[in-house]
Amino acid sequence: MDWVRADSSDFGGTLPQPRSGHSAVNVGKSKVVVFGGLVDKRFLNDIAVYDVENKLWFSPECTGSDSDGQVGPSPRAFHVAAAIDCHLFIFGGRYGNKRLGDFWMLDTDIWQWSELTSYGDLPSPRDFAAASAIGNRKIVMYGGWDGKKWLSDVYILDTISLEWTELVVSGTLPPPRCGHMATMVEKRLLVFGGRGGGGPIMGDLWALKGLFEGDNETPGWTQLKLPGQPPSPRCGHTMTSGGVNLLLFGGHGTGGWLSRYDVYHNDCIVLDRVSVQWKRLSTTNASPPARAYHSMTCVGSRYLLFGGFDGKSTFGDIWWLVPEDDPIAKRSPSLPPPSIPFHESEGASMESSSTQHDTKGREKEQSPASELQKKLGISISATVLELMVVHESRDEELIELCSRMVGDRASNNDKVACIQALREHWQQTISSLIQLQELGPLLRDYQRLIIQQHLRNVESLSLFSESDPSKQPKYQFAHITDASQLRIGDIPELLNEYKQLLSN
Q: Nearest CA to 478 among 499, 457, 460, 494?
């Protein structure tokens, strides 16, 4: 499959503003409905709709108000959403530091909101739960965070009677969690990952049976340990069903051993339901920037990725993941602009203008890098090109790692010596001793050395001798945008290529 960044030819209308922690749900096969989310500490309650048949984004004028006269649910993020027929159901979420427990339905035929009064075993207010539709009548919800504890309860909602039932599950239970993903496969609810009690991020896969009354199955959880290459532990990812596969993308985890730090992912892992194993999805184009709390929906044979957060910026970009025979897969990939945090419209417009100006300037500055890209015959994203030409003295993560390894924080006067000491350490070490927190600085320094070596040889082009292709160096990781894309098996080869660059 191929990643393709959406452009203006893919759809018309007004695109949704950047956000994370939103919901995006397929309603029938005709539309994708985006609701709520968070951007710059501002919670949203708007609706954006993608009309699949007409390839059009629009914002419907909704009716239906609560007791305060506000149309639709209050602003929120990290809620659950599921669709039954033409109805979108919303429960819970967060507004500021408050967990919500209200329950809403949107009739997408007439775009009318209704706040629902439900009965039975009412679930407590929560955020970061996960839910999925069961057939064409019921919805199942699992887990979440109520502001005090992680949850492991299971609730089933009958959308006709509006009655909640807490499912009594026997046997071994999954550890309580939030930020996980859940989806129905056949007659089982599959749950993967999430953050657990005490804070650890998990990478376990569980299946819940007994959700269909007529099957006379006793509700119970089973932990699944499947062969293949499973995803790393994460939360805030997506798990999207399409055909015979479940596609898991992105999410957030932690790295390092002594010093924990955030890691955001942009890898694709497929759960093949035919062979019942995990597989790494092979894509030919550069992947979208790493992110979590985004949305990914299946639109025919395509997947639609929107929004998310990478620890610094909120995304508003839209990407397609398409089969290799899809017409847009042949489209020449364009280098996306750097992602910037979203601000109010005027500020965003000013920042966008400034970014375009800076990009034009960088195009001239990066001509050696562009030449390198042609010589290597690979596609390198704008982000990597920028990192590759940033001087090591301005690579803050590299300097911080140098400081920790040398001892005291490096001053301006000893940065060069500090960086040299780190490079000597990498020159002498073996791959099994490389810690996760070193991979980002190591990858960027590797790419930086490629550029520096090319600049030294650009006059004679001896480094890229076209007369003898067998002598052209092969840089397998020059196109990698983030260290999270590396696999464990890549580290020895990356370190080997890095040592060769240092020797040269």
A: 494
E strand map for 197-251: 201-209, 220-224, 238-242, 245-249
Residues contacting 152, CB < 8 A, separation 6+: 142, 143, 173, 174, 175, 176, 177
DSSP 8-class letter at 327? G
Upper half-sphere CA count for residue 276 (Cβ side, 13 Å): 4
- State the number of CA atoms in the 13 A half-sphere of 474 facing the CB: 6
Supply φ then ψ for residue 177, to 5 degrees. -160, 165
DSSP 8-class letter at 293: S
- Answering whether pTM is above 0.70, one says no
Q: Is the confidence at residue 62, as pLDDT, over 90? A: yes
For residue 237 the two structure tokens come to 């990812």
Tokens 């939030």: give the residue. Answer: 178
10 Å CB burial of residue 340 (0-12, 13-18, 19+) is middle
Of how many residues is the chain composed? 504
If one compares 197 and 454, the residue with the highest pLDDT of the two is 197
Please give the Cα distance from 408 to 398 (Å, whole number).
Answer: 14
Q: Which DSSP state fits 147?
A: S
Residue 208 CB-half CA count within 13 A: 28
pLDDT tens per residue across span 330-361: 776 544 443 333 333 322 322 233 333 333 33
The H or E element containing residue 106 is strand 98-107
417: which 2 tokens? Answer: 């010596």
